[in-house]
Each structure stands twice: as structure tokens, then as C-alpha cells.
């Protein structure tokens, strides 16, 4: 109900699946706040996703969320709900469907995950394989690795793999 898990992991515990597949435990690391202070330990970054609230096992006195995952330092950044919202989403591995590509900014409608209601946005190419999508309203938890799908005139214009989100 809270998320969609990997369909080929029968018990839904993909962290344990990865440990069995890799033949050992996932490397533990630090939970940190936005200022870099260590606030706890985590059981491997593969166990977390942007926007996650449940299963963090942190006693902060109020709900907190995963706002960033830093693979290079094996850190999971924890923050507030408002830290998850931004208007800019970048995606690469771009694939256009209804036309060969876009020239200049294009008005469209986009979704950042299957159950996102979607919103009006402006899409532009950053380079040959990266798009920048600027939403009219902030979107919550644009998670790297998820699909960004862009629609125009009731057709799928194209999409890509989210590489990050930004406030503006």
C-alpha cells in the first residue's frame, strides 16, 4: 500500500535479497541531517528511497524523511517533508516517442512516477541525452532511477530516467 516493491522478490525485502545475491551484508553507513551531522546508522543505502519515512528507526520526535542518498559517501540524508519538494527534475537516457526530439522549451504534462497525478511543465534539452523539466507546481520526492514520462496532446512525447530534482 505504501510503495511498489520489486515483483520478483517474494517476501518484499529487497535489502535481504541483495545481501543473498551479493553474498554478504550491505555496507552500513551514516544517517546525516542537511548540515552533515551524524544522527544515526543505516543498514545499507540500497534499503532506502527518496521520500521514505517508514523503517528509518530514528527517534527524532517528529516524522522525518529520506531527502537524499549519497552513494559516494554511503550517507542517507534525513530531513523534513518540505525538503522533498522541488520544481525542477532532470532526467537522462532520454527517449522520444511522438516525435524525434524537441528544439527549445516545450510546454507539456509530466509524471515522475506511476501514481503521480502529473502536472504542467516546461521541458528543455540540457544536452543530447539530458532533459530538464520545470514543473508549474513543486513535485514531491523526485527519486533518481524512477521514470519521468512526458505527455503532449494525449500522447507520450517521451521520457527518461530521473537523475535528480532541485528546488528551482
How would you portray this structure in words?
There is one protein chain. The protein is mainly beta and 168 residues long. Helix content is 5%, strand content 45%. The protein has one helix and ten strands; from the N terminus they run αββββββββββ. The strands form two sheets. The chain has a six-stranded antiparallel beta barrel with strand order 5-8-7-6-9-10. Strands 2-1-4-3 form a four-stranded mixed beta sheet, with no helix packed on it. The model has no long low-confidence stretch (mean pLDDT 91).
N- and C-termini, Cα separation: 31 Å
Number of helices: 1
Portion in strands: over 45%
Average pLDDT level: 91
Low-confidence spans:
none
* Helix percentage: under 10%
Task: Walk across the major sheet and give the strand order.
Answer: 5-8-7-6-9-10
Q: What sort of overall outline do the alpha carbons produce when their principal axes are compared? A: globular
- Summing up helix and strand content along with how strands pair, one would put the structural category as mainly beta
Number of strands: 10
In N-to-C order, the SSE pattern is HEEEEEEEEEE
Note the main sheet: 6 strands, antiparallel, barrel
Radius of gyration, CA atoms, in whole angstroms: 17 Å
